[in-house]
Amino acid sequence: MHSIERTAVSDAFFEDPGSLKKVPCPSIFDPAEKYISLIVPAYNEECRLPEALTETLNYLKQRSSADKSFTYEVLIVDDGSTDRTSKVAFEYVKKHNIDNVRVLLLGRNHGKGEAVRKGMLHSRGQLLLMLDADGATKVTDLAKLEAEVLALAGKALSASSSQMLSDVEIAVFGSRAHLEKQALATRKWYRNFLMKGFHLVVLLTAGPGIRDTQCG
After folding, report:
1. Which of the 8 DSSP states describes residue 108?
2. Distances in whole angstroms, Cα of residue 167 to Cα of each of 29, 154, 163, 173, 186
3. Maximum distance among all Cα pairs of the chain, rounded to whole angstroms
4. In 10 A of CB 32, how many CB atoms?
5. In the chain, at which residue ranges do the beta strands (DSSP E only) sit?
6. How many Cα atoms within 13 Å fall on the side-chain side of residue 79?
7. Tens place of pLDDT for every residue, the chain, 216 residues?
8. DSSP-assigned letters across all residues of 106-153
9. How many Å separate Cα 127 from the centre of its chain?
10. Which of 27, 40, 44, 89 is the 20 to 30 A CA-CA neighbour of 123?
11. How far is CA 200 from the centre of its chain?
12. So what's the pLDDT on residue 68?
């Protein structure tokens, strides 16, 4: 499987709007070059994307300035948008350079799951984070997820010769479960019924401890 994915990745390129050159896409199976990669799946998000990207990049730049080991990239995956999503995204590449912001064009709409998967496969970070393009989840909450990852990874890394977080298989999820009562009060009854049914399926398939698989 790894050889198949590597071939697919090696044949793809990012376009640099600044130099008009093509930059080969990395593979997730290569050694990590960044501390963290933020994958932003986007479908027709030209209106909401600027606010989310500006807030996210300001936060990342502040952390990078305070800690030189905090290196990052933002990978915007345009999932076949029919609006100006890609144009908006490329403006951020021009402003922040292609080493920090990249745009992956899927050509046609594949769905959010595939957009996230493609973004993960082309990432360079030790940590990979999916962040929604609508800004519903604030990037300032990243530190909470990091704390959980580092706590879980500590034991595994201490028992091995590696110091790379990317060598430890760990996944953590954000959750809006604490807002459930408020959400139930504002949704239609049939949405609540479908939501509860979906949550039951998630509980049975995802395992204990994972209550919200849809939160960025």
Report:
1. S
2. 10, 12, 8, 19, 43
3. 53
4. 20
5. 13-15, 22-24, 34-42, 72-78, 101-105, 125-130
6. 20
7. 333 333 344 347 788 887 778 888 899 889 999 999 999 999 999 999 999 999 999 999 999 999 999 999 999 999 999 999 999 999 999 999 999 999 999 988 999 999 999 999 999 999 999 999 887 778 888 888 888 888 888 877 776 666 677 777 887 777 766 666 655 556 676 777 777 787 777 777 766 666 666 554
8. -SS---HHHHHHHHHHT--EEEEEE--TT--S-GGGHHHHHHHHHHHH
9. 10
10. 44
11. 25
12. 93
Two tokens, residue 147: 């704390």
> 105 — phi, psi (to 5°)?
-100, 120
Structure tokens at 31: 């050694």
Question: Where exactly are the structural domains of the chain?
Answer: 2-167, 177-206
Q: Does residue 171 sit in helix, strand or coil?
A: coil
| DSSP label at residue 32 | P
Q: How far is CA 81 from CA 23, 52, 87, 115, in A?
A: 22, 17, 10, 12
CATH fold of 2-167, please? Spore Coat Polysaccharide Biosynthesis Protein SpsA; Chain A (3.90.550)
User: What is the per-residue pLDDT for 6?
Assistant: 39
Token code pair at residue 155: 């034991």
